[in-house]
Every structure is written in structure tokens, then in C-alpha cells.
From TrEMBL:
ATP binds at residues 8-15. The keyword Transcription does not apply. Pfam families: PapZ_C, RapZ-like_N. This is UPF0042 nucleotide-binding protein.
């Protein structure tokens, strides 16, 4: 029996995750009191294979019951039931935005606000996160991207390296993405903006990408960029980093940055990684983005 415990930060996507796991044939229970976990596991075992995949969502909504979790996990080990923990996380800014959009209160916010609730929750969950087999940072993930990540791990059986690689193009005139880990400036590459028939197109169009890459400088830079990022990724994984945000910028975020982002994305996919590709400013006008 595969016994999965889904936990993590409030607002990080646990409810979405358990819906996806149900689609994958898991018997799912949301917000089961931790003290009941061993008894529930025994009941599942007694079905003699009738229930062979289980996913439980356990988090701080359980209040005082949450403190029973570690003793329950120890009891699982004592009765010979193997389990694994999936931990969902996101950066604070994203969690705050999600709570505001849904108009929900954070379970630990009280009268001190969402930020304080998130801070408390991170403290409560630190030990649990350290024991997780897989950690997924959902900051940049849509529900469909999360489902694909879960499918890769729990259906197709691919090992997860616990590093979400996000590649994003942007325009410097609209500001550098605040969550960037690596920022690359490609404003030195040939600019399609000054070619009349390319000006209104973007790096999502083949003709624009061909124009940008039809330059020895662009080709050489791409080779060096791919080589450097490929070198860095295993070291980030070794250090336990959960998300790597690579931002590639040109002036407006429509042509050169989009092109190089596509090139890097394709190269990393070919190397076996599962990067996420986004283009922040590709549809914006020439006006500066308000801070």
C-alpha cells in the first residue's frame, strides 16, 4: 500500500493536490485528525488490496490535534506501515495574495494579520518539512502544472529532485521580477523592434526567434548560458533549494528575452529537467509598469 501524507503551508495548494490524487486513483481524506492515522491505515490494510493507494491531507487546521502527528507517524512505523510525506510550499508574497484573492482568513492569523499567521505556520511545520520526501514549491505553478508534477512523481514514478525551475522573460522598463534568483540581461542581442515587419511580433513567433538567433553573438551567449545553468542546477539541488527562478530581460520583454527564454527552456527539457516557462511582459504596452 502506498500511504501518502500531504501537508504544507496553508494556501500552497493542498486542496488542489488531493483532488488530483483522487483523479489518479488514490483514496483521499482531507483534514483527518492525526491521532486517527494509525487506525485508518490498519483499516485500509484489512481490505487486502482493495485500497492500495491512500492520500491524507494533514495540516494546522487540525488545531490542537496537529500535535499528535509525530506520535502517530511513529506508531505507523511500529506497526510496519511505510509512509511518505509530500510538502507543498510557496513564498510568503504568493500565499498572502492567494488569501486576499479568496477572502479567506489564515488559520493562525487571529487579529495579527496574514503575515503573522504565515510566520507562525512556518515555525510549526519546520520539523515536518525536514522529514518530507518530496517538496513542491507552487509559487509559479498553475493547477494544471501541479497536476502534471504530481503525475510525474506518483503515477509515472519519476524521481523528483525537489527543484522547480522557472524560466521567465521580462522587460527592464517594467521592473526586474522580485523573486528572481538569476537575472540575465540580453539587451546586447540584435533587436527585432527596429525591423518593421517584426516590431509587432514577439519571441513566441518563429520568425522573431530566427532573427535573434541568426547572430553569432546570440548563439555563443546561448551556449554559455545553457552551460552555466546546467552546471549550477545540481549544486542548487544538493543544497536543498526548492525553486530556481531564472529571469531573462530585454528592454520591453517582447522579443530578445522571450527568444532566449525559449532556447533555455528547450535545452533544459532535453537534459531531462521539467522547467516552467512564462513571459511576464510579452503582452504589455511600452508604458512602464507601476511599482
Amino acid at each position: 500500500m502506498r500511504f501518502l501524507i500531504i501537508t504544507g503551508m496553508s494556501g500552497a495548494g493542498k486542496s488542489q493536490a488531493v483532488k488530483h490524487m483522487e483523479d489518479f486513483g488514490y483514496y483521499c481524506v482531507d483534514n483527518l485528525p492525526p491521532i486517527l492515522i494509525p487506525k485508518f491505515a490498519e483499516l485500509c490494510n484489512q481490505t487486502q488490496g482493495g485500497i492500495d493507494k491512500v492520500a491524507l491531507v494533514i495540516d494546522i487546521r487540525g488545531g490542537l490535534f496537529f500535535h499528535d502527528l509525530f506520535s502517530s507517524l511513529e506508531e505507523l512505523e511500529n506497526i510496519g506501515i511505510e509512509y511518505e510525506i509530500l510538502y507543498l510550499d510557496a513564498i510568503d508574497e504568493t500565499l498572502i495574495k492567494r488569501f486576499k484573492e479568496t477572502r479567506r482568513n489564515h488559520p493562525l492569523a487571529g487579529t495579527k494579520g496574514i503575515s503573522e499567521g504565515i510566520k507562525k505556520e512556518r515555525e510549526y511545520l519546520a520539523k515536518l518539512k525536514a522529514t518530507a520526501k518530496n517538496i513542491i514549491d507552487t509559487t509559479k505553478l498553475t493547477p494544471s502544472m501541479l497536476k502534471e508534477e504530481l503525475r510525474n512523481i506518483y503515477v509515472e514514478g519519476n524521481e523528483m529532485d525537489n527543484l522547480i525551475i522557472s524560466i521567465s522573460s521580462f522587460g527592464f522598463k517594467h521592473g526586474i521580477p522580485i523573486d528572481s534568483d538569476l537575472v540575465f540581461d540580453v539587451r546586447f542581442l540584435p533587436n527585432p523592434f527596429y525591423i518593421q515587419e517584426l516590431k509587432e511580433l514577439t519571441g513566441n513567433d518563429i520568425v522573431v526567434r530566427e532573427y535573434v538567433m541568426n547572430s553569432p553573438v546570440s548563439v555563443e551567449f546561448s551556449i554559455k548560458l545553457i552551460d552555466m545553468v546546467s552546471y549550477l542546477i545540481p549544486h542548487y539541488i544538493k543544497e536543498g533549494k526548492n525553486q530556481l527562478v531564472i529571469s531573462i530581460g530585454c528592454t520591453g520583454g517582447k522579443h530578445r528575452s522571450v527568444t532566449i527564454a525559449h532556447v533555455l527552456y528547450a535545452a533544459l527539457k532535453e537534459k531531462g529537467y521539467r522547467p516552467i516557462l512564462t513571459h511576464r511582459d510579452v503582452t504589455l504596452s511600452g508604458e512602464r509598469k507601476k511599482e
